[in-house]
Every structure is written in C-alpha cells, then in structure tokens.
Amino acid sequence: MWRIIRCARELATPSFSAWLQVAAFTGLRPGELDALRHVNVELARSRIRVVEQFSAATRTFTLPKNGQPREAPLTDPAREALVSLPIEGEFCFAPIRGEHWTASARAYHWKAVKAAAGWEGSLYLATRHFAGWYMVNVLELASEDVAIALGHTDGGELVRRLYGHRDRDRALDRVAAAYERTASCTQLRLV
C-alpha cells in the first residue's frame, strides 16, 4: 500500500494521494471519503464522523451505507495525510477543478497510479480490503472491532469471511511466538 501511496505522491495531486492514504488506513468507502467535510473530522478525539456519502450513481449526497451515520477511527497515517492538506473549502479532498472528488474525477489519477505501482486490483481492494486485512493481520484486532471500524452491522462475519482472511505466514509466526513465550514455563515443568 505504501508503494501505491508513493506513486500517487509522485504522479497525482496531493489531495488524491492523501485520499488514498486516508482510505487505506481508515477503511472508509470511496463515496464516504468523497463526501468527507472538515467539520466531520475530530482531531482531538481521533474520530471521523461518517454522516454521508457521495453516490456516483445518482450524483447526490446520501446517507452512508446501511443508512446510518457512524464514527470511524482517525488513525495516525490518516491524520498525517489529512493535516498535510491545506483547508481550501468545506471538503477534505478536492480535485483541482470541483468541490470534492467523485469516482469519475478519481479514475484518471487512479489509472496512472495503479499502472506505476504495478497494482492489478481495484481501488476498493487497494484501500478498503487492505484496511480490513491490516487491522486483522498486522494489528491483530478482533473481527468484531474491525467490523465496527469499517461500518459493518453483522458483528464481524463479513470481516472473517472477506477482509479478515488470515495471512498464513503471519499466523504461523504468531503460533511459534506464543510457544516461545511459554517455553520457559514448559522447561520448568520438565525439570
């Protein structure tokens, strides 16, 4: 993901590279980021209030998926990206022309960044799926917590099934490390 963000910093506008970084480290959906306004970012509480999304289909602002506003975590990498941008309007992310990003406005930049980074997947896989995978495999958060962070309402089922597929090598490393932590206790019992 950092390779994709580096490519975005080199090839795209600062707003688009920041958009990618916030997406990857919060798990917000693209439409939610397109609609994100400064008033909904709470730096002191490390929260983002997700109160709307921009619908590419209707080109209107609607309630977020599931029809309910929610809060999302403002992680350190996301905070860094947000505070790096000048405040020039009500929206956090804006293209050179226009008030806020839209799917069609992002497409040009994403195509160039994707090619430069050698990424073959979608923007959604690069950001939202990465966020879910990272929270489960690297941060080792419970799927229920990841579900809340991503705005799911199923108690973690989708995270376990889709985003939270365990990385095989990381899982084996965790098992080995757990045994190493208990090795001294095991050795004492054998003596």
Write out key terms for the chains shown.
191 residues; mainly alpha; hpI Integrase, Chain A; three-stranded antiparallel β-sheet; 9 helices; 8% strand; globular
Overview of this protein structure:
The protein has 9 helices and 5 strands, in the order αααβββββαααααα. Helix content is 55%, strand content 8%. The chain has helices at 2-11, 14-26, 30-34, 76-83, 103-117, 123-138, 143-150, 157-163, 168-190, and strands at residues 41-42, 47-50, 53-55, 60-62, 70-73. The chain has one domain (2-190): Intergrase catalytic core (hpI Integrase, Chain A). It has 191 residues and is mainly α. β1 (41-42) and β2 form a beta hairpin.
Structural class: mainly alpha
Largest sheet, if any?
3 strands, antiparallel
* Total number of distinct structural domains: 1
Radius of gyration: 19 Å
Principal-axis shape equals globular
Task: Draw up the topology in text.
Layout: H1 2-11, H2 14-26, H3 30-34, E1 41-42, E2 47-50, E3 53-55, E4 60-62, E5 70-73, H4 76-83, H5 103-117, H6 123-138, H7 143-150, H8 157-163, H9 168-190
Helix pairs in contact: 1-2, 1-5, 2-4, 2-6, 6-7, 7-8
How would you sum up this structure in a few lines?
The chain has helices spanning 2-11, 14-26, 30-34, 76-83, 103-117, 123-138, 143-150, 157-163, 168-190, and strands at residues 41-42, 47-50, 53-55, 60-62, 70-73.
